[in-house]
Amino acid sequence: MDAAELKQRYASGERNFQQVNLSGVNLRGVNLSDINLCAANLREANLCHANLTRANLSWANLTDANLSDANLTNARLSWTNLTRTDLNRTNLRGANLCWAS
Questions:
Q1: How many contiguous H segments (helices) and E segments (strands) does the chain have?
Q2: Where in the chain are the domains?
Q3: Which residues of 18-49 are buried (b: 16+ CB within 10 A; e: fewer)?
Q4: For residues 91 and 67, what is the distance between their CA atoms, to the nearest angstrom?
Q5: How much is the average pLDDT of 44-54?
Q6: What is the CATH number of domain 1-101?
Q7: What predicted TM-score, i.e. pTM, was given to this entire model?
Q8: Contacts of 6 (CB under 8 A, 6+ apart)
Q9: Gyration radius of the chain over CA positions
């Protein structure tokens, strides 16, 4: 799936994107609050300035992703792979990082 398809489906009300492959996708500044990206592949994705409030990113692969300045308030990041992920100035208030690596 590419960024355009995700944004279109999200805009039409879809929120469940479990196990989707978004490796390398550019979602800079996009509003994806309440999205379900459980077990999604977001390796090397650009989510800088994105709104991921209450997003479910449990079990997601965010290796080498850019989440700088993103809003992850109350997001679920349990069991998420955050290896080399850029989290500079990321809002993680209330986020669940249980067992994240």
A1: 1, 0
A2: 1-101
A3: eebebbebebeebebbebbbbbbbbbbbbbbb
A4: 10
A5: 98
A6: 2.160.20.80
A7: 0.96
A8: 17, 20, 22, 25, 27
A9: 12
